[in-house]
Amino acid sequence: MSRVIDVHHLARDRVIGAYELDGLVVDPGPANGLEALLAGLDGVEPRALLLTHIHLDHAGASGVLCRRFPELTVYVHERGAPHLVEPDRLLASARQLYGDDMERLWGEVAPVPEENLRALSGGETIEGSIRVAYTPGHASHHLAYFSGDTGEAFCGDVAGVRIPPSDHVVPPTPPPDVDLEAWERSLHVLEEWAPEELCLTHFGRTRDIAGHLARLREGLAREGERARAHGREAFVAAVEDEVLHAVDEDLDLAARFLQAAPADQLYLGLERYWRKRAEREGAAVGEGQGVRAPATRP
Ligand SMILES: [Zn+2]
């Protein structure tokens, strides 16, 4: 079995977890969690990073880790790879969300040397027996990994955010490339693996696969509709209320959910999804591509 290493993001536990399985590290987390990661590795020298996607809460420490362990192999989706080698665009995009708070939130983001990278597209088997699947929805370059030996599926963010001991599931939908249809297809891919455990970055593992994914699908439909029908303020207030209610008003636990998935960002990602989708449909009609009616929204 793998072990989860809590990187204690901003001094809070149960927000960001890395997984270590036989020297492989799935999503090391941000560089400001490096000390906690290395302490958790407890002398194990990592041989490879398996990145689910390049968002800074998952992959921020990759470059710093390559500096420390020059032989480290870094697996990432081919669309994410160039942004690890030259993180300027990744940082510019993150700065739009986090502004001047970048350094405090994520620490140093060092480039990953090209020779350390192994670009994947999904469908590969790596490191002997780890299967790789392309799982967009949360991000267009998202991968998930499955160990047939242990029955563990390492899901990054595509299986949602759930902070124990709560079983409430929040769908993390930050900009820029949330895609609700792709997300649903990706959940099927996870189910086809028939995993015994889902390993979530935010946070920890669950064996209640069916219940967890059902709650995630309900959340995607509910928040998706909420973002389509309401403005930012109403959306944010409703999501924050919902989380607080789901955790029986436990403020510490609610704060962990909202640190992993800030309600404001959830809105921005969904709002962009609906806007882009309307633009695509408008363009298709405008170009006279048949009499296709606008797709029914969930
Ligand atoms: Zn995340």
Question: What is the gist of this entry?
Answer:
The chain has 298 residues and is α/β, with parallel strands linked by helices. It has helices at 34-41, 56-59, 62-68, 81-85, 88-98, 102-106, 180-192, 209-229, 232-246, 251-260, 263-286, and strands spanning 3-6, 17-21, 24-26, 48-50, 73-77, 117-120, 125-126, 130-134, 143-147, 152-156, 197-200, 204-206.
Quick tags:
alpha/beta; 41% helix; six-stranded mixed sheet; 298 residues; binds zinc ion
Please render the helix and strand layout as text.
Blueprint: E1 3-6, E2 17-21, E3 24-26, H1 34-41, E4 48-50, H2 56-59, H3 62-68, E5 73-77, H4 81-85, H5 88-98, H6 102-106, E6 117-120, E7 125-126, E8 130-134, E9 143-147, E10 152-156, H7 180-192, E11 197-200, E12 204-206, H8 209-229, H9 232-246, H10 251-260, H11 263-286
Parallel strand pairs: 3-4, 4-5, 5-6, 10-11
Antiparallel strand pairs: 1-2, 2-3, 7-8, 8-9, 9-10, 11-12
This protein binds zinc ion (ZN).
Zinc ion binds next to helix 2.
Give the helix tally: 11
| Overall morphology | globular
Tell me the strand order in the biggest sheet. Answer: 1-2-3-4-5-6
**Biggest pleated-sheet summary:** 6 strands, mixed
Distance between the termini: 38 Å
List bound small molecules: zinc ion
Strand content: 15-25%
- Backbone structural class: alpha/beta
Q: What string, H for helix and E for strand, traces the elements in order?
A: EEEHEHHEHHHEEEEEHEEHHHH
What does the radius of gyration come to?
19 Å
Q: How confident overall, as mean pLDDT? A: 95
Helix content: 40-55%
Which regions have little confidence, pLDDT < 50, spanning 5+ residues?
Answer: 290-294
Number of strands: 12
